[in-house]
Design goal:
486 residues; 0% strand; mainly alpha; 19 helices
Length: 486
């Protein structure tokens, strides 16, 4: 198979991620204002509860399939057999997930949300038929990007034409799964390009289960500190409004972490492929990934920390101003979450340190669960945000200790320090615009745009490795194209 450029893969993934940023920036403000925090809270609470059953259906399959499938992707017969075995496992896990889901619907606390939970439960079966991992194995990010764009546009049109007031929250829930339904059906239809689609039950069924189970434990544990905060917030406070306000803060930080995850999604298949043939190249790619997410996440976290209240009002409306402190706490978590994403899901998994990855996330989950039970009754959404921050710090600390043979945090400290220092002009720009009492939009976009320009300029002056290499790459490409035209 032709080896695809990491640069091209990264560009397509950035485009896909940018769509995941741009579309919510267009649609969420509309939905937040039209539906209000209470209806938004109902949707978020129902969707969050279904997430646990979706995780059971996924069962660590995606991470395992990408890691193992990337090693045999050039042999169509082997990859077809492997994909059939994975699909067989997935159908069993989906059946188990649905069985548990329908039992959960009998819980009285879920009675007001049963209709919404049934709508979101379609994602359980879609995890099996979607075969998204297949397209990651073959690094077919061009297709993924175009497909995502088409269905996001359809969803956006449906939102603006069908959701008109607070009572339309069920319609909004249906629209939210529209993109997922269309994307997964298209994935299934197109899968024949790479494999002979069939379900294969054989002796390898149990062989696949053990490593999948370790990743599954990690995913379940991860969900506790990524999703459990909203579940517990709604369960303990009984307030849909509190969940809705918190959801707005989560939405903003999710946009940032999605951008960071682009780096990992692009590099994981290549790292898995390189580990067995060129370990030095795999190590190099791993450190590039950690440094890159550090370089991108630090200015996002610091800039939005100062802009938090203004961004919430612009993004969701005055009603969500109350979420400013929650957002500031969660923004401090962004850098740790970005680095943890690469270390746990890329480095540990690629090197088959599944037990260490699972242990790290379990520690974070336990810390989060204990802290949530203490802080949410006392501080509500701010308590949930604080628990999430401490959980990520716990994971980061554990990963640095147990993974010191394959990840040395000292090698990325310089990047983090440089990034923090390079944010100083951005902070000064923010205070300068506030001092002259500029319009809210001018403060937001002035800080972001001018802050970004000064940030990379300072890094360039400081001879930052990533910025320097990026500059030289662009410069060389420009010279090549200019020479070809001559």
């Amino acid at each position: 198979m032709e080896k695809k450029s990491l640069g091209i893969n990264f560009i397509f993934n950035v485009l896909k991620t940018l769509m995941g940023v741009v579309f919510p920036l267009i649609t969420f403000p509309y939905a937040a204002r039209v539906l209000g925090s209470e209806s938004l809270g109902k949707i978020d609470y129902a969707q969050t509860n279904v997430t646990y059953f979706t995780l059971i259906a996924v069962f660590g399959i995606s991470g395992y399939a990408v890691r193992e499938g990337a090693r045999i992707r050039d042999d169509k017969e082997k990859i077809s057999k492997f994909a059939g075995e994975i699909l067989a496992v997935n159908l069993v896990t989906v059946s188990v997930a649905y069985g548990l889901f329908f039992l959960a619907l009998l819980i009285p606390k879920f009675a007001p949300y049963r209709g919404l939970m049934l709508i979101f439960s379609t994602t359980i079966i879609l995890t099996a038929v979607g075969l998204e991992w297949l397209y990651n194995i073959y690094e077919d990010y061009k297709y993924i990007t175009i497909r995502s764009f088409i269905f996001q546009v359809i969803s956006m049109v449906l939102l603006f034409t069908c959701v008109k007031d607070e009572g339309d929250y069920v319609i909004y829930a249906l629209i939210l799964i529209c993109s997922s339904v269309g994307s997964n059906i298209m994935n299934l239809m197109r899968s024949r390009k790479y494999i002979k689609l069939r379900v294969v039950f054989n002796s390898n069924f149990f062989k696949h289960l053990k490593p999948m189970f370790m990743i599954f434990i990690m995913n379940i544990a991860a969900s506790i500190y990524l999703v459990m905060d909203r579940s517990m917030l709604g369960f303990i406070t009984g307030s849909d409004k509190e969940v809705g306000l918190y959801a707005a803060a989560i939405k903003i930080t999710t946009i940032i972490t999605s951008l960071m995850n682009t780096v990992r999604v692009v590099m994981t298949p290549r790292v898995s492929f390189s580990v067995q043939s060129d370990e030095k190249q795999a190590e190099k790619l791993n450190y590039i990934a950690v440094k890159l997410v550090s370089m991108l996440s630090v200015p996002c976290a610091i800039g939005l920390f100062f802009l938090s209240e203004r961004v919430l009002v612009f993004f969701a409306g005055n009603e969500y101003r109350e979420s400013a402190l929650s957002l500031q706490i969660l923004l401090m978590d962004v850098v740790f979450a970005a680095i943890n994403g690469v270390v746990i899901n890329q480095i540990f998994i690629s090197y088959r340190k599944d037990k260490s990855a699972s242990a790290a996330v379990i520690i974070g989950a336990v810390v989060n669960l204990i802290l949530n039970s203490i802080t949410i009754p006392l501080y509500g959404k701010e308590g949930a945000a604080f628990s999430t921050l401490i959980s990520e710090i716990a994971i980061f600390t554990f990963a640095c200790v147990v993974g010191r043979d394959i990840f040395k945090v000292g090698r990325v400290v310089k990047q983090i320090v440089q990034s923090i220092f390079a944010c100083i002009p951005m902070v000064l720009i923010f205070f300068a615009l506030e001092y002259i009492k500029a319009h809210n939009l001018i403060i937001i976009f002035g800080t972001i745009i001018l802050g970004a320009l000064t940030y990379f300029l300072v890094l360039f002056v400081m001879k930052n490795e990533l910025v320097r290499d990026g500059y030289l790459y662009v410069k060389n490409e420009y010279r090549k194209r200019r020479a070809n035209r001559a």
